[in-house]
Q: What sequence folds into this?
């Protein structure tokens, strides 16, 4: 399909509105306000520290990515009492949004994970906001950012003898859900289990629904892909390689996927492609759940009391509670965090 036809298709299919990625503040001319974003990250770090006090150990450090040895900031959350060698399972926690971060609304769920015995490792992969322009501009959607996340496992294995390398799982949301699936299929032996919540699934579909030019500018501002779908067979291959729905045959570990019909970000037309593929080709490995119209849509499992800016207490709609109950049951079964 040529670019002109693809663009026409996008105009026909684009929705009237879509959820927007949270911004970190803008400077003059619409450029990101990097200083403000760095200050906001410092404030968020302090929120995490206060929420962690007396409940879990929090560390903020960096590791070198396997790609260009880029410094990747990372949060590490550990139980206050650490077991002996290989005494803990670990979760690689992959945040959502193209320009996202490890949001403090995850506080109650990370606390829950640590209380179960997990070590939680949450990398701020390249493109994440709040770490300056070089980190921001290094965005490589579905490419080196996946390597950044995979490198966090190397970091765990070399610095955390209390983590069992055979019990490492990965969980991510939206864009982070896409990274989760790509990581699990690119390196099938790295993880024991994977959870992908409302994951981005198909870049061809996404560009068609959301607007080709707009989405291309968001996911590939440096034109690392080399162009748009339909330009050349080589460029098509890049989009295909970075679309989770085309990687299902490589899946070798249990995976849990939750989607919603009222998702205004990862539309049901995109999300169902992944669910259908998993149910058809990996029925023995995949658990899927489709929610109809939960409060929050794309953010249904992360709803919280907006007046609580310290602990971000969940609203606990029935869909939110059901989803997290399924997540913990799946992870606990496959990673056995209570094993010592």
A:
């Amino acid at each position: 399909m040529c670019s002109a036809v693809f663009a026409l298709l996008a105009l026909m299919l684009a929705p009237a509105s879509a959820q927007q990625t949270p911004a970190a503040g803008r400077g003059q001319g619409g450029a990101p306000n990097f200083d403000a974003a760095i200050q906001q990250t410092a404030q968020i770090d302090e929120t995490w520290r206060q929420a962690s006090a007396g409940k879990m150990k929090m560390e903020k450090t960096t590791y070198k990515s396997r790609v260009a040895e880029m410094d990747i900031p990372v949060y590490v959350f550990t139980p206050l009492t650490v077991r002996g060698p290989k005494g803990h399972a670990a979760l690689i926690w992959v945040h959502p949004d193209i320009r996202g971060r490890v949001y403090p609304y995850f506080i109650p769920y990370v606390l829950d994970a640590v209380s179960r015995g997990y070590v939680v490792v949450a990398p701020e992969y390249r493109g994440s906001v709040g770490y300056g322009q070089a980190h921001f501009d290094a965005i490589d959607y579905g490419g080196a950012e996946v390597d950044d996340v995979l490198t966090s496992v190397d970091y765990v294995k070399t610095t955390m003898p209390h983590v069992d390398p055979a019990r490492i799982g990965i969980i991510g949301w939206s864009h982070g859900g896409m990274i989760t699936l790509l990581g699990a299929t690119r390196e099938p032996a790295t993880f024991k289990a994977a959870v992908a919540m409302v994951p981005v699934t198909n870049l061809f579909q996404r560009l068609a629904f959301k607007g080709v030019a707009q989405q291309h500018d968001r996911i590939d501002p440096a034109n690392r892909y080399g162009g748009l779908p339909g330009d050349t067979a080589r460029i098509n291959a890049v989009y295909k390689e970075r679309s989770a729905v085309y990687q299902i045959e490589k899946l070798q570990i249990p995976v849990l996927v939750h989607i919603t019909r009222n998702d205004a970000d990862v539309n049901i037309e995109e999300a169902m492609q992944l669910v259908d593929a998993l149910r058809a080709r990996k029925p023995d490995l995949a658990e899927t759940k489709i929610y109809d119209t939960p409060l929050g849509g794309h953010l249904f499992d992360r709803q919280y009391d907006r007046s609580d800016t310290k602990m971000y207490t969940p609203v606990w709609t029935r869909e939110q509670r059901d989803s997290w109950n399924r997540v913990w049951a799946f992870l606990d079964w496959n990673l056995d965090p209570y094993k010592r």
Observations:
- The beta strands are 57-64, 71-78, 88-94, 119-123, 163-173, 193-197, 255-260, 286-291.
- The first helix runs from residue 3 to 13.
